[in-house]
Amino acid sequence: ARGARIFSGIKPTGHLTLGNYLGAMRRWVVTDQHRAESLFCVVDLHALTVEHDPARVRRLSRQTAGLLLAAGLDPAVCTVFAQSHVDEHTRLMFLLECVAADGEMRRMIQYKEKSVRARDSGQSVRLSLLTYPALMAADILVYGATEVPVGEDQRQHVELTRDLAVRFNQRYGHTFVVPKATVPEVAARVMDLQDPSVKMGKSHAATSGIVYLLDEPAVVAKKVRRAVTDSEPGVSYDREERPGVANLLEILSSCTGEEPAVLAERYDGIGSLKADTADAVVELLRPLQARHAEISADPSYVDGVLREGAERARALGRPTVDAAYEAIGL
Ligand code: ADP
């Protein structure tokens, strides 16, 4: 059997956050790209499932790709590309919509949350928001990915992808590799620093609770030092009872590699935990920011990487999609 193959994606719906980095991107850079054939995709079609501004999506797509490279994805060892450049994704999506049931799409937490948000702000819910998981399943299955490194919030979509792959294989003959999600042990769900009941999301309105990867060091430090915690004395690790403190401990843990509970014992007060976490995040982002400045100096570099990436991705994906069309009776 073939070895591991890795696929993951990121939506160009806002400026990338510390949540995206610790929950997903850092593993892509540090381990994934070196241990398996891997593909990392700016999933731009997914940015169209909610109200969007065309110029902003275009700008953010390129910026997101630039940040993936700045974070350390190396186009010499992995494939970095944009979803809309490779038609295989939407070709396969339709077949997956034909094995999926509408009920299982409606059950997705993200659909429920985002459709409520759209309706609350007086907008209609785009049909593509409902069918989004079929496109995401196609993104993964096109490449025969065995692993999908994502944050906790994407686990349910990867489970649905598995169900669709198994169902297709049972009905029409073995066509797809059945992938599994890999979720980090800490910082799988980085929470907003001002409201630790919601995740730090790039698609949310900007607040001082969201650390962006390109925030100036002084801004990063200020956001972390002003994180909302609680009035209990001391530091302890308890995600349920002390979500604000637990979030800081997980962020620090993710930076230093020490267990959150071990770190908790080291601190007497929240102040020094915040100070150390602020320093750790600033240092974590420093090399990425420096490389981003270099990459931004040459916009054609990112375009070239995306062009070559799309060619590689197409070549990898086409045989599987052709086989799926054949299997389903076309
Ligand atoms: P967002 O939800 O910020 O718009 P995406 O849906 O584009 O981000 O997700 C890109 C990757 O980042 C996914 O693997 C997702 O699980 C991960 N991710 C997003 N937000 C967080 C977070 N707050 N904590 C951990 N991982 C996250």
From TrEMBL:
Task of the protein: Catalyzes the attachment of tryptophan to tRNA(Trp).
Subcellular location field: Cytoplasm
Pfam (any one): tRNA-synt_1b
GO terms under cellular component: cytosol
InterPro entries hit by this protein: aa-tRNA-synth_I_CS, aa-tRNA-synth_Ic, Rossmann-like_a/b/a_fold, Trp-tRNA-ligase, Trp-tRNA-ligase_bac-type, Trp-tRNA_synthetase
Keyword field: Aminoacyl-tRNA synthetase, ATP-binding, Cytoplasm, Ligase, Nucleotide-binding, Protein biosynthesis
Record: residues binding ATP: 11-13, 19-20, 151-153, 190, 199-203
Enzyme Commission designation: 6.1.1.2
Species of origin: Actinacidiphila yanglinensis
Assembly information from the UniProt record: Homodimer.
Protein name: Tryptophan--tRNA ligase
Recorded superkingdom: Bacteria
Principal subcellular localization: cytoplasm
Family: Belongs to the class-I aminoacyl-tRNA synthetase family.
UniProt GO molecular function: ATP binding; tryptophan-tRNA ligase activity
Residues that coordinate or bind L-tryptophan: 139
UniProt motif ('HIGH' region) ranges: 12-20
Reactions that this protein is recorded to catalyse: tRNA(Trp) + L-tryptophan + ATP = L-tryptophyl-tRNA(Trp) + AMP + diphosphate + H(+)
PROSITE patterns: AA_TRNA_LIGASE_I
Motif ('KMSKS' region): 199-203
GO terms of biological process kind: tryptophanyl-tRNA aminoacylation
